[in-house]
Amino acid sequence: MRAAVVSAVGEAPGATVMEEPGPRADQALVAVTAASLNPVEIRVAAGRMGEIRTPYVPGLEGVGTVVRSPSLEAGTRVRFENHLPGFGKNGAIAELVVVDEDAIVELPAGVGDEVAAAAGVVGITASLALRRAGMSPGDRVAVLGATGGVGQMAVQLARTAGAASVVAVGRDAETLERVRSLGADASVNLNDIEGDDLTLALRAGAGGDVDIVVDTLWGVPGMAAIGALGAEGRLVNVGNSAGVEVDLPLQAMRQNRSAVIGLSSGWTPLETKLDAYRSVVEAIVAGDVTVDYEVVPLDGVGEAWVRQASSPHRKLVISLA
Question: Would you report the helix, strand and coil content of the chain in percent, each value rounded to 5?
Fold first, then answer.
């Protein structure tokens, strides 16, 4: 079979031929049609998340059809997650993949394979962030890093859940415009504003104090967003691309009884993640949510890998069909 393989630490994967895997009796064998790239996989391959074992097949998530399974009929379309590959296990970017039964979600007819792959981790993370924040209809929501995959999903899911207002924050002007068309009421370009001015801009865009912040950035933008929270406001952090070392605005947090909540889908129980994924797929089928993605053939996986490292503002999906 053909697969993408990371041959050494720090190298991009390349397409190659390898032996077919053999599942245990309690596992499924899936013929993969599409697998998306995720930032965490770039960090793993670079050795930034611990010592990895090469060679290995990357790919945290994929979509395909069941070849054989203890519980599903052959030909059933499914989306699945693997344990983070690189630490002794292979991932999803291969024509055939062994999958644990409890990591599988059956897909409805109304969602295509590439869309189902593109919506996975980003949709799950955005959905879990809003759930963890306890969002209710009428809440004012700000999304930091709204031009990324998680941010774009968070904007749409917040709007679908009945947010009174949604403010999109990012640096890419073109993508911010697209996010406005997806449901954001206002946008803030971080190239033009920061610090206290960003706090004021968030309140202005939201139409008042912010109730919920979905934060993929942390750093200076995250601290400014905490300052924009109203009484019992919640910031849910899912990333730190704008920096790790910060000075928390403790006085503002105490006065407003606001909270900072950390979240990683990688350390969330699988059952909870799969429930979130099903809700995202339902929103896609209903036409409430779209995913900006680009399909790349397996032979182009190395180039796509390099692009993923530079935050392409859309999901890159590797096609194995």
Answer: 35, 25, 40
Residue 112 lies in a domain: yes
User: Residue 222: which domain range?
Assistant: 122-265
The residue type of 206 is A
Q: What is the pLDDT of residues 72-92, one digit of tens each?
A: 999 999 999 988 999 999 999
**279-to-74, 161, 275 alpha-carbon distances in Å:** 25, 12, 6
Are 9 and 56 in the same domain?
Answer: yes
Cα end-to-end distance, the chain, whole Å: 12
> 238 — phi, psi (to 5°)?
-125, 5
> What is the enclosing helix (H) or strand (E) of 317?
strand 315-319
For residues 99 and 58, give the distance between their C-alpha atoms in angstroms, rounded to a whole number.
14
Q: With beta carbons less than 8 A apart as the criterion, state whether 126 and 150 touch.
A: yes
Residues 113 and 127 in one domain: no
From CA 187, how far away is CA 168, in angstroms rounded? 5
CB 270 within 8 A of CB 102: yes
Here the tokens at position 205 are 């865009």
- Are 91 and 82 in contact by the 8 Å Cβ rule? The answer is yes
**Within a domain: 235:** yes
- pTM for the complete prediction? 0.96
- Which whole number is the average pLDDT over 90-100? 97
Q: Are 72 and 100 in contact (CB under 8 A)?
A: no
Check: CB of residue 145 under 8 Å from CB of residue 63: no
Distance of CA 157 to the CA centre of its chain: 13
Q: 213-272: per-residue pLDDT in tens?
A: 999 999 999 999 999 999 999 999 999 999 999 999 999 999 999 999 999 988 899 999
> How far apart, in whole angstroms, are the C-alpha atoms of residue 284 and residue 123?
10
Contact 189, 170 (CB under 8 A): yes
Is the bond preceding 269 in cis, omega lying within 30 degrees of 0? no
CA–CA gap between residue 129 and residue 221 (Å, rounded) = 17
37 domain residue, yes or no: yes
C-alpha 156/C-alpha 179 separation (Å) is 9
